[in-house]
Write a structure and sequence with these properties.
Blueprint: H1 4-51, H2 59-68, H3 70-90, H4 94-117
Length: 118
Amino acid sequence: MIDSTMTSGSRLLRLWRECSTHVRFGNAAVVIFLLAQCLDGVLTYVGVTTFGTRIEGNPLIALLMSHLGEGAALLVAKSTAGALGMALHLGGVHRAVACLACFYVAAAVVPWMAILWR
């Protein structure tokens, strides 16, 4: 005869493990996303102060820079992106946050590092 407490206890333990893995993935995704935002902001600031605003590839950020200045524009843009990423994270949309983190690393951080390395 199967003990019902053991079966439900096993299910509870398995559920807890699955949730903790999910939480770890979500936490890692949001940390990488926020680090990518910070790196993009710093590298963009260095690139724009070195080469001018014409090197900025995002026309919205370039327009914001012309009105607010480089530092303030990047602070607004990166703070907004970080807040929206946190909202996705808190909403449990961890795969989207992970995809956005990968996108920012590949489309923003790596190109800036390549430009500034030369």
